[in-house]
Design goal:
The protein is α+β, with helices and mostly antiparallel strands. The chain is 14% helix and 29% strand. Strand 3 and strand 4 form a beta hairpin. The chain is globular and about 50 Å long.
């Protein structure tokens, strides 16, 4: 599997679809709806760190709701960075939000709720303390 990675934070843009190859739809695998599915899929990757343990994971999504969630988080970060250049990283809580769709009505999507900021230059806006690690043992419904 090939992957083309670009970094939005550095102003990089994804390649044009025509430049990726695999243009012959007769050779594409069958999709969920039975029609040919493009082997190239735009995905958003968001690295996340569990602060108490330092464990790193990467949230990967190609869904509209997931991409919107990542875009909303990045927009909030950019807005804060514009006002405070040394703003540090957002501290988030994984949650869900409703998203209207034409086909299915309201559906749940991921939502990265900003509960504080970890400022490298000091002056952290710290979130409320986690009462137990059981808060992290939940199930995400998507």
């Amino acid at each position: 599997m090939d992957r083309k990675v670009y970094r939005v934070a550095y102003g990089e843009r994804p390649p044009e679809r025509e430049d990726l190859g695999d243009l012959d739809q007769d050779k594409w695998p069958e999709g969920l709806d039975g029609s040919p599915a493009d082997p190239w899929v735009l995905q958003y990757l968001l690295p996340l760190e569990h602060m108490p343990s330092g464990e790193l994971v990467v949230f990967v999504t190609s869904s509209i709701g997931g991409r919107r969630s990542v875009a909303d988080l990045c927009s909030a970060y950019a807005k804060r960075k514009g006002k405070k250049p040394d703003c540090g990283q957002p501290i988030i809580k994984l949650a869900t939000a409703e998203m209207p769709t034409r086909r299915y009505g309201k559906v749940l999507r991921p939502y990265f709720e900003i509960i504080g900021w970890h400022d490298a230059a000091g002056g952290d806006e710290t979130p409320p303390a986690v009462e137990s690690e059981d808060e992290f043992a939940d199930e995400i419904p998507f």
